[in-house]
Write a structure and sequence with these properties.
By secondary structure, the chain is an alpha/beta fold. It is built from 17 helices and twelve strands.
């Protein structure tokens, strides 16, 4: 639904080949709004169709208008689904319920993926039971994210849990080029890099990260915070005004303590420079970027949002802090910076966890099972109807 490359785009990209081997051909239907999401998929051979695809907006006035746009788009979505001869439709997030309604109206199975807690709580509570009426299968990144969508399974639909797909082998190889990439970016080889990767949007809490960076830099000047990501059209003004200006006012950019890097397709290469991965988000699911950082051996400091606590507690690969709390975030970062043995322990645990639990093939197999179940359920319904 969003034009900027993010988690759902990455999922389609990573799973395309693995799902094809399992008998599923994927085509991405996405918005025609300006952004790099569709182009990055097409560059990697993923079939894409861009259409006028509205989505719900925040704020009462914008939300009302966008709701009318969303509802009016259903007939067009039905037509597109039929033109593409889809056997199954998967959509992400209860806020995008209109895609599911269109798929059900077109008479094909529907899978709803719950990738995080980005939709406002009131929306999740009110819309989830409605979505439950027309979906066949639920897929969720963790039980916590599932629990944040009450009544999504009032018809007792099966739930398939999965972790985002990560090419662990390739990432480990890239991690060996750390010093080379640091030189490429003009970073001091002696500096300790605290890294985050995510679109430049409010939900990522980068304003909190900047405040924490100011606290850390006062105590350990050899630490450099690198924020990798891409601008989104809706939030570019906010980000420059709120996040980057704050970093400038604190003198962090001038002194090289904080760097904002538009990574684009080089995100994985740049990820290799990190010694420590930080998530300051106010809403999440299980971020692919976090798992990728763990695959490169980085310990994690993260806000306890979405299903991140499930991963961190099971893997014992990092420290959890409350969201919107720069002081606690800075304390956790300093704890690892000042305690190399603890950071090394978390690093080893991170590598073990991703090697045992995170894999493109495993993720594709879960998706194929979910799709197969939805299709069998639809066939059974048709036979009973006849």
């Amino acid at each position: 639904m969003t034009p900027t490359f993010g988690g759902p785009h990455n999922q389609a990209l990573r799973l395309f080949g693995a799902l094809k081997e399992l008998g599923w051909w994927v085509k991405v239907i996405t918005t025609d709004a300006p952004g790099n999401g569709a182009s990055r998929l097409e560059e990697n051979g993923i079939p894409v169709r861009q259409i006028d695809l509205p989505r719900l907006r925040r704020g009462f006035s914008r939300q009302f208008v966008s709701l009318l746009e969303v509802l009016s788009s259903i007939p067009r979505l039905i037509q597109v689904i039929k033109e593409e001869k889809c056997d199954l439709v998967q959509f992400c997030g209860v806020q995008n319920f209109h895609v599911g309604i269109a798929a059900r109206a077109a008479g094909i199975p529907v899978v709803c993926q719950l990738l995080g807690t980005f939709a406002p709580k009131l929306m999740r509570i009110s819309v989830s039971p409605i979505v439950s009426l027309f979906i066949d299968v639920i897929m969720a990144v963790g039980r916590k994210v599932m629990s944040e969508h009450p009544w999504i399974s009032i018809r007792n639909q099966p739930v398939f849990y999965f972790l985002p797909p990560v090419d662990t082998g390739r990432l480990f190889i890239l991690s060996q080029k750390r010093e080379e990439v640091k030189r490429k970016l003009g970073l001091d080889s002696r500096s300790l890099v605290v890294l985050t990767l995510g679109n430049f949007a409010p939900c990522k809490g980068h304003d909190v990260l900047v405040e924490a960076a100011g606290v850390v830099f006062k105590k350990t000047p050899n630490v450099c915070f690198c924020v990798l990501g891409s601008y989104t059209k809706d939030f570019e003004d906010y980000y420059r005004r709120t996040v980057i200006e704050r970093a400038k006012n604190l003198g962090l950019i001038e002194r090289g303590a904080v760097r904002f890097i538009e990574a684009g397709s080089l995100a994985h290469e740049y990820l290799a420079i990190g010694d420590l991965f930080v998530i300051s988000s106010v809403a999440e699911g299980v971020p692919t970027a976090m798992l990728e950082a763990m695959a490169m051996g980085m310990p994690v400091v993260s806000t306890a949002v979405g299903s991140i606590p499930e991963v961190i507690e099971e893997s014992k690969a990092g420290i959890l802090v409350p969201p919107r709390n720069p002081k606690k975030l800075a304390e956790a970062i300093l704890r690892l910076v000042e305690n190399p043995p603890l950071a090394m322990e978390f690093s080893r645990n991170a590598l073990v966890f991703v090697r045992e639990h995170v894999d493109v093939k495993k993720c594709a197999e879960v998706h194929a099972k979910a799709y197969g179940y939805a299709c069998k359920k639809a066939i059974k319904k048709r036979r009973l109807g006849n």
